[in-house]
Amino acid sequence: MKKLLTLILILPCIGYAQYFSGEITYEVKIKPKSDTLDLKEIIEQNHGTTTSYIITAHNYKSTYYKDKKYSYSYSYDDKTQRMYDDHTDKPYITFRDSRKSNFEYYGSQIFKDSTAAILGHDCYMVMSESEYGVAKTYYSDDIKVDYANFEGHKVGNWYNKLKEVDGAIPLRTVTEFDLYFEIREAIKIEERKVKPKEFKLPQKPLAASFTALDKQIEMQPPSQQQIQCYQQKVNSVSVQRGEKTTILVSFLLEKNGKIKFIKPLEEDAEGLHKIAVDIVTNCGFQYTPGIIAEEPVDSEAYFPVVFFR
């Protein structure tokens, strides 16, 4: 009887121990297909060269570092089923609905005989294809979570990927793009208790990304004065028969219709981004806020300004 009682007490502990909670550090490398490819430009466009990934039974967070400095993070909260994106160069945080898929996934195949050892863990490979390219991902049965806790998580095809490998977490991913390979490999695995405060968001305003909206932001019909304002500013630097150049300007549209945090998506050497920001700031265009669950919400918006150079 005593032995039976001991066995009953031990079994729940064994069941609990099989799931991973902790931190995985990844290194991201770019391998160009051609010597003529500007490697520096590609690295600059990426969020970072090192990633810290923490995960518990229900939540996770991926933090990117560029030149050892924090650059970007995204996190998942199972209570809201939202993903939160924080960029260092944005004064607000955007959120996505994890239940809404964000890309087209074509399929995958498991190769149990294609093995590798990563940080002492025996791994097998899964080849998958999506609109972003072909990826070879290596998993170990030693590092896994309960995939059932992430049911309905469609962003990144996360739930289906987890279910396919019985909750295993990727330790190496090699993604083939048109011009280069991106290699993301674990360089450190630390099993530990992740504290709730590690998922705490910075003190910034929250705004819905366009993918989270049930109804998108709409620009109200511009007045003749607003159109003239736009044309005058664009024509002041455009040339006839010039090449089309589009500058995107981002801003936060509050649910009351006011705009703030106006910023170009990228800066150009000619300074066209400054004129684009001036147009959004001073031409007086009006917008109808985006909708979630039949209620207007603060949301991120983009305005294209077209020049001919």
UniProtKB/TrEMBL annotation:
It comes from the Bacteria. This is TonB C-terminal domain-containing protein.
